[in-house]
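Researcher: Structure for this, please.
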Amino acid sequence: VFGSLFLLMGFQAVTFALLAKTYAMADGSLPMDPRVERFYRILPLERGLILAALVGLLGVSLLGVAVIHWAETGFGPLDYAKNLRLVVPGATLVAISFQAILFGFFASILGMKKK
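Model: Predicted structure, token format:
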């Protein structure tokens, strides 16, 4: 659970830093950074959405397996050690996927040219 928490916090920090730098570059407050430009060239919106969807699908699959295990017990008591090994990574991947999708759309909006 702590690993999941730290992974989510780290992902959020990295995406925030990228969005802040993208905004400052678009605003003219910072000069263009070739590393940030290269990142957006390698991972444009469409490619990022596909990657995020695949991560989300993996997470939903793990959660689905956990629900199947629960159904096998008649939706009764669970072996928490066994199920948390599916639920925590599954929920973490779904959360990262959702954050990545929102990041992609917002970064794309920030990258639009002003008229």
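Researcher: Any notable elements?
Model: The radius of gyration is 18 Å. The mean pLDDT is 94.
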